[in-house]
């Protein structure tokens, strides 16, 4: 039985999660009392 070597290379590109994300949405229907 021949010797078979499998070379598997796994590269994980992990970044630290962001603490928050700011989304700006400009509409004319939401009153300013609702926006906090």
What would you note in describing this structure?
With 36 residues, the chain is mostly loops. It contains no helices and no strands. The N and C termini lie far apart (71 Å).
Provide keyphrases for this structure:
36 residues; 0% helix
Could you give the distance between the termini? 71 Å
Strand content: under 5%
Q: What summary fits the major beta sheet?
A: none
Low-pLDDT runs: none
Over all CA atoms, what is the radius of gyration? 25 Å
The number of distinct helices, counting runs of at least 4 residues, comes to: 0
**Using DSSP, what is the number of strands?**
0
What is the helix content? under 10%
What would the principal axes of the Cα set say about the shape? rod-shaped
Structural class: little secondary structure
Mean pLDDT: 73
Q: How are the SSEs placed, and which strands pair?
A:
Layout: no helix or strand
A few lines on this structure:
With 36 residues, this protein is largely without helices or strands. The N and C termini lie far apart (71 Å).
